[in-house]
Amino acid sequence: MDQTVGYCTAPDGVRIAYATAGKGPPIVKVGNYLTHLEFDWKSPVWRHVLEGLAEHRQLVRYDMRGTGLSERNVGDISFEHFVTDLGAVVDALELERFALLGISQGGAVSIAYATRNPQRVSHLILLGAYARGVVHRSQQGRELLETRRAVIRQGWGSDDPSYRQLFSMQFIPDGTPEQLQWFSELQRVSATAEVAEKIAMAMASIDVSGLLPGFKVPTLILNSRGDRRVPIEAGRELAALILGARFVTLESDNHLILAHEPATEVFFAEVAAFLGDEKPKSWKRSIRVTEAKLQTLARGVETSATYKLFGIIAVVATVVTFIAWLVS
């Protein structure tokens, strides 16, 4: 499956990069923290989600202002701009009615947009989302925000990956070494430390709880039970405030669901049922292809002395790489 990248202009003149893939009724993935349209498309963290969503629908996604392929030199980063940037993308594509997928702070952006444009949003899917940012969720919120800002300033763009690994372990603690390494690199390529800090501050101050009483868009809310980035209580708060919302607990510790965990199967089953689509199979095929290649290689190793030698070298190289990752 291929994607097409295009650009539009936000009301304040900032260029926003967006990508489309697949065919069918549109589903728009709202811009969230840490994305890069090209980097994500081939990644071991996002690829299965993107392929699954695009199997029966036209998937639209975009990079937030200041990040990814969108305009990087941006002075003003605020929640209001997050909402108007979403509007610029759907207007540029002339989408009349569509489903919204809001992940993390993308959930609050989705809610604000849908409140202003209820006639255009057919369904709302929230994954690891929240109504209130961290400074509104706990007494320690301000201290936590300042800690995050200090870590970003100190190590975001550094050649030393240990700082970025702190964020990786928050987002995907059960990730494989490859997934964790990729997510660490994504932080570096998605945004500068200055922009990452501005976005973190804007996210922390979000509060759309006042918009939820009377909110009428059909809503599906999914949260990982052990999410370290956005606690499951934040999702339950959304479910309590949105009349008729369906709440689903995902048995996972990850903020972003990974291809190898059962939570991904539940996610796609719930989303398909909610939208009235067939369950996607493309993400499973990609996993099976990878497994088949490994099995073929394993059989070759058993029958060929040459392959055995290559296999031993590959295992040694993998172990050395893994040890280096652990101690880095």
Short description:
The chain has about 325 residues and is an alpha/beta fold.
Question: Would you spell out the secondary-structure blueprint of this structure?
Answer:
Blueprint: E1 4-9, E2 15-21, E3 26-29, H1 37-41, H2 47-54, E4 58-62, H3 79-92, E5 98-103, H4 106-116, E6 121-127, H5 134-137, H6 141-155, H7 162-171, H8 177-190, H9 193-204, E7 219-224, H10 232-241, E8 246-250, H11 262-275, H12 282-303, H13 305-327
Parallel strand pairs: 3-4, 3-5, 5-6, 6-7, 7-8
Antiparallel strand pairs: 1-2, 2-4
Helix pairs in contact: 2-12, 3-4, 6-9, 7-8, 12-13
Written account of the structure:
It contains 13 helices and 8 strands. By secondary structure, the chain is of the alpha/beta class. The longest helix has 23 residues, at 305-327. The protein folds into 2 domains: 4-280, 3-Layer(aba) Sandwich (Rossmann fold), CATH 3.40.50.1820; 289-327.
